[in-house]
Please model this.
Amino acid sequence: MKTRLRILYLASEVAPFVKNGRIAEIASALPKALFEMGHDIRVMMPKYGTISERKYTLREVIRLKEIPIQTGDHQFVVNAKSAFLPETKVQVYFLDYKPYFDKLDSAADPKTGQETSENAMRYILFSRAVMETSKLLHWEPQLIFCNDWPTALIPWLVKNEYRDDPFFAKCVTLLSIHDFKRQGIFPEAVLKQAGLQKSDPAYGELVHNGRANLLKAGILNAHLITASGGTYLAQLWKNPDLAYGLYDVLRHRKDQVTEVMDGIDYSVWNPETDVHLVETYSGSQLKGKAANKRSVLEQLALDAKNGPLVGVFFDGSESKGGEAMLSAMDRVLGLNLNLVLVFADDTIKRRGVDKLRKSHAGKLAVVVGPDAALTHRLIAACDLTIAGDCSEQQMAQQMIHLHYGTIPLVNKIGCVLESLGESGEGKCRSFTFEGCEKKALLEAVKNALHCVEDEKNWLKLIKKAMKFDFCWKNTAEKYIKLLQRLDNPKKK
Model:
């Protein structure tokens, strides 16, 4: 591939236009990093009704008005407008079909959290509109970068419906999977409704266990498949359940599956420049971290004599892991520490939390829906944090915590750094636990508290953690290296 690539980046949501999860942050930061590397990158997403055209200065594009899209027996008319990612020159195209996109800005039913048949038609239409819009731009992408099931049909379309179209002849596709649980599973009848016929030789790639599965189609047809970073992929090959029914499909493409670590935005998350902190600090000057801890302990009415401050940050995406951790907190509070439970909002079930707070007054604080300033100060103040789930949001939190010198205790499945402490010294070892069982979690906390007592080596560990580089440029460079390898005829 040439040094400067033409990249079409697709996502169901992009911050700041729409943000319901971590994918929106990635779909904003990664294109920006790729653009800054010199690549010609353009982003496409649906035009949801919640997006303010005035605020983001969306403009009409004459050649992209009233685009006819044939889907099944129906012809839809799609319009596209464009804007730039704020404070960048990255162009974003918003594909608009109001009956499908005007009401919802999420890939799931907001009441049930499950996919609906309407969502199938919504993103199948979006996928076909992406292909036709690209042609109208007269801009031939060398790479189409897809994210999760809402865009996973694109690789299938490229290899099947558009296989003889010279416009896409030199195009490769990449599917980045951020959530294996969400696969775009629908009744098989949806495929016929969308014009995907059983007579097509590749129809079977769209179906899994008697139901339509768009993620499966993407996995089988993308030139390259990536999973979000950490150790999730390594664990997945050992534990098929982590693929949520698609293990054999992934194994069939194992040579094309790899893992890429995402990044964090250092313009937002940097203890040396963070305006929200009581006092900034760095790895070479940690006095400010202690100042933030004193301030937070006072604000939360916690006694410093109780020991290290341990935080548990619930981002709202937790399932069994979050509930299991809550059930273990009573035993954890029996140790020499202060504990703060931080809930992103008030929707998570906090059974037993009020009872815990009463029985451990002065040792336990509960924070619900903190603003940005308090969130930053809490991260800076904590000595340790605990992460039970392996969601992408949790992995991003781990990267942020490490950069602030706050050491995460993590579930081995999906942790950013599975063995942070293994290259430590003295007692500074073993910062992982298996699953979220009470005994395993308790032992991990005990081991970490012993490490904090080893002051000399604890400081070494903090400084080591703060040196890790999770900038988005590293992520972008890894993707480009993978693509260059893919383009080598010997590697095809």
